[in-house]
Amino acid sequence: MALLQIAEPGQSAAPHQHKLAVGIDLGTTNSLVATVKSGEAVTLPDADGQHILPSVVRYLDCGRQEVGSAAREKASFDPYNTIVSVKRLMGRGVEDVRALGAEAPYRFVAGDNSMPFISTVAGQKSPVQVSADILSVLTQRAEDSLGGEIVGAVITVPAYFDEAQRQATKDAATLANIKVLRLLNEPTAAAVAYGLDESAEGVIAVYDLGGGTFDISILRLNKGVFEVLATGGDSALGGDDFDLALATWIAEEQGLEVDTLDTGLARYLTEKAREVKEGLTDADSVNAQLDYADLKGSVAVSRAQFDALIEKLVARTLRACKRTLKDSGINADEVKDVVMVGGSTRVPLVRERVSGFFSRELHIDIDPDRVVAVGAAIQADVLAGNKPDSDMLLLDVIPLSLGLEMMGGLVEKVVHRNTAIPVGRAQEFTTYQDGQTAMAIHVLQGERELVEDCRSLARFVLRGIPPMAAGAAKIRVTFQVDADGLLNVAAKELSTGVESSIQVKPSYGLSDGEIAQMLQDSYSLAEGDLNRRRLREQQVEADRLLVALEQAIEADGDQLLTQDEREMLLGEMSQLIALRNGDDADAIEKGIVVLSNESDFFASRRMDHGIQKALQGHTIDEIEEKK
Ligand code: ADP
Ligand code: MG
């Protein structure tokens, strides 16, 4: 399937008519917009010639807002109305946001859908609204500089973004009145920018170290098709940490008590540190002048000193690379291309260590701040129909497994974590009880074995199943994850064709930190989970037997059982019920065998009785004839 086919009908361009489409890198720290002009992808500057738009929005009491550098300059002066790093809040719930604590010092109010709103002088703003305000500025910039209306945009998101975060990003675009041609994973966009899609095959690592986040993605290119094998990183590691390490060092050099700095001075020192850090990228040493309140003087920092300060932080990124490679089942020496993304990959020590880790030359020719937007623009150009012969298909992965709730509160995984998308998977299920006419479908996301440990995404009910014996109905449940990572679940009863489906629009609220936690739990608790799973399975088995026996006694007990026999069975049943309510899976298993054996006579008596009933009123001859 070509990407081209994803474009909506009527969107393919008439010959010679170039459609204006843009790529947008909606970053945590900085955002950019790019487009393909005369065959070349370029980022677009604002009226002052600035390409990078700081992802900061400040709300004013007149109902207007400032976006970009103007807003960033006011962040410390007007912190409650100036929203920074809003990307960290996208698709998260109130609880997640509270957990962010100091990172987001705003006044939050809970809204519908447990989506958090930020209280500002201009009213309550959701993260989706804030992102929409950033997107509007970028598309307005593009329309001004291209002199026409934009038909659509490709917006990039981190590869690990879950359903809720992707949906929130799409919602932001809708709010900004932008048609989303596609959400594209940031690492995939970077690989496209380097034209790596044009080589035949190979494994690509994308190392993205920005202001506050580190992402590592392992992609595989095969016959022009990208597949994301695995993603990893650290959502709280980036250039800001370099700044902090250097600021702390400068403070100590100046004989300041680091823990007791007031916020203004701390902010001044971090800002200074950032200047020094960026200076050290091109120079071996930098002399910084300090001038803030009582603090006057100068400090000289050599690159070697700076390297020593960030050594441990860089090593942390390499450990994440190692883990992610392991996750993808790839050895470092199998990686053919390493793409560097994010402003912090300009730091020489970072380049040196990453190059050493992969034993490779790195792709650093395209400005690491712009490379994602450039790749998105190339994609947008294809999707808008400007390059009709292109058939590039980009595959991404789902970050956590998707599954269904089974009897006993167990989760059956239908699509496993790290499966490339788009993907369709079907699984057949059956009914649990005789005459069951409806089936509740509960969709979950997570790696653990039990429903209570996974995240609930959606519930719906398939009705109109014809009454049949337990296990006779065949229900096929299909999971379809589209190219944007959005999930559609459908259930169909095969004998009647009764169908029901749901587009999963998850409630906002799963953070990448939680994803990491859920993954970690699934590893460290695996054994405990297996025991609990076995217990639940045995409990389900026990219930099945108990219900069947109860129904049988109800139906035929009066006729086929003596009083003693009935009491014996009821006694055995209550023993199994006691075991079933305990937590010893082995004991329940044994109890099931005992009760089955003890009730065998009743089952065979019922069978005989059933045959007799069927034979009543017929002569032997008739039966012989029927054979
Ligand atoms: P994000 O992806 O988080 O939006 P960017 O990719 O724009 O962020 O990276 C911003 C980070 O890059 C900041 O920490 C900034 O200090 C750092 N940075 C930018 N230029 C340089 C440079 N020349 N040397 C070192 N670090 C730099
Ligand atoms: Mg970035």
Question: Could you characterize the architecture of this molecule?
Answer:
- It comes from Pontibacterium sinense.
- This is Chaperone protein HscA homolog.
- InterPro entries: ATPase_NBD, Heat_shock_70_CS, HscA_NBD, HSP70_C_sf, HSP70_peptide-bd_sf, Hsp_70_fam, ISC_FeS_clus_asmbl_HscA.
- Keywords: ATP-binding, Chaperone, Nucleotide-binding.
- One of its GO terms (molecular function) is ATP binding.
- With 627 residues, this protein is an alpha+beta fold.
- Helices cover 38% and strands 26% of the residues.
- It has 15 helices and 29 strands.
- Strands 1, 2, 3, 4, 11 and 12 form a six-stranded mixed β-sheet that branches.
- A hairpin with a 3-residue loop joins strand 21 and strand 22.
- The structure holds adenosine-5'-diphosphate and magnesium ion.
Overall residue-averaged pLDDT value: 83
The number of strands is 29
End-to-end separation: 55 Å
Distinct small molecules = adenosine-5'-diphosphate, magnesium ion
Q: Give Rg in angstroms.
A: 31 Å
Which structural class best describes the helix and strand composition?
alpha+beta
Report helical residue fraction: 25-40%
Q: What portion of the residues fall into strands of 2 or more residues?
A: 25-35%
- The count of helical stretches stands at 15
Q: Pick out the low-confidence regions.
A: 1-16, 506-510, 617-627
Keywords: ATP-binding, Chaperone, Nucleotide-binding
GO biological process, one term: iron-sulfur cluster assembly
Protein name: Chaperone protein HscA homolog
GO molecular function: ATP binding; ATP hydrolysis activity; ATP-dependent protein folding chaperone; unfolded protein binding
